[in-house]
Specification:
Pfam families: Hydantoinase_B
Number of strands: 23
Largest sheet: 6 strands, antiparallel
Structural class: alpha+beta
InterPro entries: Hydantoinase_B (IPR003692), Oxoprolinase-like (IPR045079)
Radius of gyration: 25 Å
Protein name: Hydantoinase B/oxoprolinase family protein
GO molecular function: 5-oxoprolinase (ATP-hydrolyzing) activity
Strand order of the largest sheet: 1-4-3-2-5-6
Oligomer: single chain
């Protein structure tokens, strides 16, 4: 039974055809290409027909295609799970035109992390039977709760976070359930955009189901299902051969932290991974070769505030696919890494072991979850860090690439408005290249266009650019975060759900941590003040400027080994200041930004001086100065040393 008291014994994860079944490899390519095309068509339709800025403009939504065994077939991005739908609605009772809906975190089998993520699922039919599913889920503007945007930073239970809907049939044989829609829109502060977004998502998934039905009709069910099995088998074998083989057998431990939960005072909320690489010997899919065991024992108790994530359902199925993209960094080349999809084929290669109920990853209902990004994003870095220990640092340094900021109040016409944005940050330096600037962890997502926001909301965007010196110093520098400044034209309230305001994105193998997140209100004004990264309703007066600086990625390798020409380029591009070049890289430069001049002799002397001042041994990871504040003065954790 799950936390809602519902049965969880439903069929999932099995092959559709007998082991050893064959299918024309050209047809496999056709099927795989069609799946990717349909997924993209669904997402394009949602983007063009939705209404809210978060869906239409920021693109904070995803689509996914799954087979009748609930296995994810597409690999361009992560998706929610079909499992809660199959659990509550038997497949043989479904009909064409049905659309299922849910957003209840505790009944989602781990696929939905917080209530604003609304999920629609449409079955695909062939010969009157369900053969696949098309699904979409996205972050919507408002689903009720204590604050606009449904993400109260100090929530102590899910009841404060908005309307929770368990799996329901939202459309029945093509007929919308108007009563359910009315309940949801009545609970939203943005009812019109919510209704329009749901209509866009339902219609797009129904369209995708028709496209997939045509694929089954064209080639036959047996052939298509054999192609599905082949696609997933190929992923399993590719990751076993090209990725897992790069990790030496053994056990490795590392941990990282969220810094606050909105209720308690800031402290270290531990997320720990013990990674074991071990061979297997069985004959089945995923057996006969290496596998990874990811053990979360040592993860902190569930928080009072909303940073918990329900990860321990279906054997951690969602988390396996969420974390697996990190492993692609072990590919032979960046180009090969970009070619590797993450679909259900990686699931047999990973075993997850969860601690007992009552931790950040195994919360007990009704623990709040709206800021669960502090945990699931941190876990990406924890996995990268523990793998880095196994492969002598040949993994990227840390990145923290999502936080929600926004303003709300009355617009020029006196109507309520809500503007929220998911701003990215810098990615970590790599052993072969600098990190990327201002990336977003949600594929294809983006900041809101200035032209759109200024025409719709009562503020002016006075600056949107790179945050100079925010990337962690290293032989390969961390990517830069955003600096955004907006001037309010009317009194409003600022909101923020962000982490890494005390801690920082860690550097690795001599690389330094990036700069932390910060928000300043009334920049250069008489009431200038720093705002906490978790804020629901910080007042901002008309005329005041809000400056948002997002995190920079961690650096990789010794910054004193960064070539002078690379530092000169950073100065010319405005990514590093003259003072930053001196203090972080030991580079003495003069001249102007457009024509910097490096004094190599003085720089050589300064670098020698800085090297001599270093301690004899340094940890493998650099957490930045904020760590000591929360760790009783310690500058590193025991697990940071090789």
């Amino acid at each position: 039974m799950n936390n809602a008291g519902l049965p969880t014994a439903y069929e999932h994860g099995n092959r559709l055809t007998a082991p050893g079944s064959t299918v024309d490899p050209i047809l496999v390519e056709i099927v795989q290409g069609t799946l990717a095309s349909v997924e993209m068509e669904v997402e394009t339709a949602i983007a063009r027909t939705s209404r809210s800025p978060m869906i239409r403009d920021a693109h904070d939504f995803r689509a996914g295609i799954h087979d009748r065994q609930l296995r994810k077939l597409t690999g361009r991005s992560y998706s929610a799970l079909v499992h809660p739908i199959a659990r509550d609605f038997p497949l043989d009772e479904m009909a064409e035109g049905d659309v299922f809906f849910h957003n209840d975190v505790y009944e989602s089998e781990g696929g939905i992390g917080h209530l604003p993520d609304l999920c629609v699922t449409v079955p695909v039919f062939n010969g009157g039977e369900v053969v696949a599913f098309v699904q979409a889920f996205g972050h919507h503007d408002d689903i009720g709760g204590a604050v606009p945007g449904s993400m109260p930073s100090n929530a102590s239970s899910v009841y404060e976070e908005g309307l929770a809907v368990p799996p329901i049939k939202l459309w029945d044989k093509g007929v919308p359930n108007k009563a359910a829609l009315r309940i949801m829109t009545r609970n939203s502060r943005m009812p019109d955009s919510l209704a329009a977004d749901l209509d866009a998502e339902c219609s797009a998934c129904l369209m995708g189901a028709r496209r997939l039905s045509e694929l089954f009709e064209r080639y036959g069910r047996e052939t298509i299902e054999a192609a599905f099995d082949t696609i997933l088998d190929q992923t399993t074998e590719t990751y076993r051969r090209e990725i897992l083989s790069k990790i030496p057998d053994g056990t490795y431990v590392w941990e990282d932290y969220a810094e606050h939960d909105g209720v308690d005072e800031p402290r270290l909320h531990t997320q720990r991974i013990t990674l074991t690489k071990e061979p297997t010997g069985g004959p089945g899919p995923g057996d006969g070769g290496p596998r990874l065991v990811i053990d979360f024992t040592g993860t902190a108790p569930q928080a009072k505030g909303p940073i918990n994530h329900c990860g321990d359902y279906v054997g951690g199925n969602f988390l396996k696919k969420w974390l697996a993209p990190i492993l692609r960094n072990l590919a032979d080349t960046p180009e090969r890494m970009a070619e590797l999809d993450v679909n259900e084929g990686i699931v047999p290669l990973i075993e997850m072991r969860f601690p007992d109920k009552g931790t950040l990853l195994t919360p007990i209902f009704p623990a709040p979850t709206n800021a669960r990004t502090f945990v699931i994003l941190r876990l990406l870095g924890v996995l990268a860090g523990v793998v880095a220990k196994a492969v002598d640092g040949k993994m990227p340094a840390d990145q923290e690439t999502i936080r929600y900021t926004g303003v709300y109040g009355k617009d020029r016409d006196g109507n309520d408005y809500l503007m929220r944005e998911v701003l990215g940050g810098g990615s970590g330096g790599r052993y072969y290249a600098d990190g990327e600037d201002t990336i977003h962890v949600v594929p294809d997502s983006r900041n809101l266009p200035t032209e759109f926001t200024e025409s719709r909301f009562p503020f002016i965007v006075e600056r949107l650019g790179l945050a100079v010196d925010s990337g962690g110093a290293g032989r390969y520098r961390g990517g830069l975060g955003y600096e955004k400044q907006i001037r309010m034209l009317k009194d409003a309230n600022f909101m923020s759900i962000a982490d890494r305001s005390i801690l920082a994105c860690w550097g690795v193998k001599g690389g330094k941590a990036g700069r932390s997140f910060s928000v300043t209100v009334d920049l250069d004004g008489p009431d200038e003040r720093e705002v906490d990264a978790l804020a629901d309703s910080e007042p901002v007066k008309a005329g005041q400027v809000i400056r948002i600086r997002t995190t920079g990625g961690g650096g990789w390798g010794d910054p004193l080994e960064r070539p002078y020409e690379d530092v000169e380029r950073d100065l010319r591009w405005g990514k590093v200041s003259f003072d930053g070049a001196r203090t972080a890289y030991g580079v003495v430069a003069s001249g102007t930004k457009d024509e910097p001049v490096i004094d190599e002799a003085a720089s050589d002397a300064l670098r020698a001086e800085l090297r001599a001042a270093r301690p004899a041994e340094e940890p493998f990871f650099d957490r930045g100065p904020g760590y000591a504040r929360l760790a009783d003065g310690k500058t590193s954790a025991d697990v940071d040393w090789m």
